[in-house]
Known about the structure:
Layout: E1 10-16, H1 22-33, E2 41-46, H2 50-59, E3 64-67, H3 74-82, E4 89-94, E5 97-99, H4 103-113, E6 119-128, E7 157-158, E8 165-169, H5 170-176, E9 184-186, E10 189-191, H6 193-204, E11 210-222, H7 229-250, H8 252-255, H9 257-281, H10 284-317
Parallel strand pairs: 1-2, 1-4, 2-3, 6-11
Antiparallel strand pairs: 4-8, 5-11, 6-8, 7-11, 9-10
Helix pairs in contact: 7-10, 9-10
Amino acid sequence: xxxxxxxxxxxxxxxxxxxxxxxxxxxxxxxxxxxxxxxxxxxxxxxxxxxxxxxxxxxxxxxxxxxxxxxxxxxxxxxxxxxxxxxxxxxxxxxxxxxxxxxxxxxxxxxxxxxxxxxxxxxxxxxxxxxxxxxxxxxxxxxxxxxxxxxxxxxxxxxxxxxxxxxxxxxxxxxxxxxxxxxxxxxxxxxxxxxxxxxxxxxxxxxxxxxxxxxxxxxxxxxxxxxxxxxxxxxxxxxxxxxxxxxxxxxxxxxxxxxxxxxxxxxxxxxxxxxxxxxxxxxxxxxxxxxxxxxxxxxxxxxxxxxxxxxxxxxxxxxxxxxx
Length: 324
């Protein structure tokens, strides 16, 4: 990190794997080209897809396009770019997201204003392909890869940033060895490599926080198939499974610190607020959201219990600690 709070240089890493997302990747790259605070360098890392690598290399000859040479998955792809980056800070952007024009400027502002921080988590707005379902509560924005009600005020410490809109001090990242390539998202299943990384780096630098900086904004695409209630329930279950895997690695106290506060304050108050407003306005969608808050929390908790059981069973058998 640059000293004395001076303006940091920023390397941007975008990871992709699916040719069906080609247009989205192009939009992500173009959004970086429009930044008011220019990136030192921008890299697109292609995860074990040679045709997509060749297509992007031809389309962006001025861009650094790399192939993931490690295990398949987002953590290894991120490491491929970030571990060779030259910037003071590495910023990660999802391949199906578009950064606001001042995204990097705000990331630089955060690191300049708080020069000792490990990194920044920004605000991710859902870009619904059709529209937000009326039953969908904003407290569950994480289901579709978006920010959610319950995040702290700007500049306040957080346990972790989320990998689709985050920055990290490059030296701390390299020192930690990057993301754990044994974790990550596969389809709908999620094992939170970003949370694990933030906890691990935080343990190495206990006097340096991660902070939330909502002015660093991106828009993350929510495709039509993720607007269904069935997807919502599946994603909640797999989030619970992922948290069980995380506690096996990071321990229950650090692994679930944010979730306890989220459950006690945000879910309960969200239900109460909607019921009260629904009674006054007779807006049935508010009652639906209150029910979904309870159901979503219950399914996530059940997934967590299922994951813990699997972890303990495998531990007794001497196997992998990650839930299936």
